[in-house]
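Supplementary Note 3. Input sequence used for the single-chain structure prediction.
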Amino acid sequence: MKDLENKLNDTQYQAATAIDGASLIIAGAGSGKTRTLTYRIAYMISKGIAPQNILALTFTNKAAKEMRERIKSITGWQNSYSLWMGTFHSIFSRILRKEAAAINFTENFTIYDTADSRNLIKSIIRELGYDDTKYKPNEIQSRISKAKNTLITPQVYAASAQLLNEDTLHRKPYFINIYSAYEQRCKLANAMDFDDLLLNTNILFHKNPDILGKYQNQFKYILIDEYQDTNYSQYLIVKKLAEKHGNICVVGDDAQSIYAFRGARIENILNFRNDYPEYKEFKLEQNYRSTQTIVNAANSIIKNNSNQLKKTCFSKSEIGEKISLINAFTDQEEGFLVVNSISDMIYRKRASYSNFAILCRTNAQSRIFEDALRRKNIPYKIYGGLSFYQRAEIKDFTAYLRLCINHNDDEAFKRIINYPARGIGNTTMERLQIFANKEQKSLFDAIKSDNFHESEIKNATQNKLRDFIAFIESFTAKAFTADAFEFANELAFASGIIADLKQDISPEGKSRYENIDSLMNAIKEFCDNEKNNNDNQSDFLVTINEYLDNLALITDADNEKEEDRNKVSLMTVHQAKGLEYDYIYIAGMEENIFPSNVNNLSLNDIEEERRLFYVALTRAKIKVNISFAQSRYRWGKIENNNVSRFVREIDGEFLETKPDVESVKPKLNIETYSSRNYENTASRPANTTTTFIKRPVLNQHKHSENFAASDYRDIRIGMRIEHERFGYGKVVDIDKYEPDGRMIVMFDDNTKKTLIFKFAKVRIVR
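The predicted structure, written as discrete structure tokens, is reproduced below.
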């Protein structure tokens, strides 16, 4: 810590060393906030503050792990391991396990993931006899999550005439019944979903002042990363914990607040000064990631938001290349042009695939780019696809592990009761569920009950169920005393899963078997890491319960495989938050796509969409490319689109002019155009900012009266053709003879264009 001033810039140093009282660190994109937080914690420890008195909350395991490793390198493993550092959910689940009895849970409660939660909701809707097209499980799950994150329990919900009236108006009057049943079944299963980890922590502290006091005394210093992403529930917990000592440091960037759809409140960071009037403010404005052009372009966008904490980000890196605009006639051509650009950059810059990312507003846009990447044989990976831990065989085996720890975990029970097959079908499960509901017991306990013989299940099947219960109980005894890897390995063989997977010799079967092997390796690696963190103490035991707790809180970003690293990344902008790439392509920059559904957006919604675009721009280190299509298919019909208002807001001096149009000055007033609409720009207001360059109307080709388009199958490389608008040219390349195939034409005005056969109207001249 002696040369701390040499490791940080002036503002970072001030933020890292002002450890007493309330601090707000406004950290622009790429400004070194993780570095600042890391050194702030290390500085605290160097000043004699005990690590166990420091609470550091992040939003990803990856961020927590990175910070812990850096602190470990500065202060030693023991200090870093003693910190209370992790995601909100991991820290609060740790507290809840310690204090579970106070809220009528046991410390071995299961954490339901999104799939478990949705499956339970599906079951409840079916059991209550409701129409699942009216009460859609995904929608119900989202509504329950929203209620929990605003601390509205089923009891509070049922007492609110306003909420019940709104449900009636939206033709979902029985939502409260589903919500109430969901809460009861989770409690019965000794399970919490992700939102419960926050809700129950609030309930724990509210109903138990002594427990709250204990943690207030322990956490003398609190640090929160990405504070702009906190929701109401997280905000209240942190506020309660900081009440006694007032040593709270929040780091964030209101310009990157993009998660309102999942409950994040930008007000939390905007109003920090109201919660802590004597706060100190630090602005990290120097961007170490991006070129000056990218940073300045991002500034020119975000200045249009009225609801923000003012800052002026800057970069001392090279000026860098201007932003390229890829103007396509169709969405198919957009995919072709973007991927061609990537291919060209890889060739010219000798860049790796991993240096590139294509960012879309929605997942649905990715298909076109996937198709284009496949045609070019460019390897790619999609974020937000099926996670390793969501694969069927992984879910099956972890359900065995979960049930051994928590017998009341009904979702785990239902998943494995007939895997491997033991002759227990849907009819049996329906009768078992009816019996369990009647007895108000979990499925496991219902089978163990003295009057189980009164259920309508056949005697032979009852015996099979009891045998299954006995098998699980035999492993439960070992779960808390055996090494996690040894326990999992023994269970995998004893359950019959390994034998079942080995029987399937198909490539898919082999892949499933290898996935279980990969899971075993992950468990072994977890055990080794935990032992290493405890200085390799020979008697240190890592149990399967500890592994499951870690597993429940893992995100996709924490599990990137080595073979996925050198690939082009394809993801939504939301998924790109926190990531960085040399070259970024922001696709589909059109009104009603980005921003989305413009007619239904409020001013606050538009500002959040603008922040989302700001996040997309600031992911890039070297170069940004923005693409848009003049027309695209929507629900089977071609729609014409206007370029996004956000592209029009970029200061023109940071944009490239297109090579196939006449040269113009930067800030020239330009009107957008569609493939069939070339409007005159004379009436455009004089202060309009340039966005992209339109082809001059005067050069539009007047085709001959007898013009008739030729069949694309007759067109060959080298032929001279006439286009209905662009005039005469020569075909220089063709990729394939199919309706969505493309030909490249060099026209007589020295412009080169890529035309899609099914849209292009050309006549063979010779």
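Residues 658-699 have pLDDT under 50 and may be disordered. Residues 507-533 form the longest helix (27 residues).
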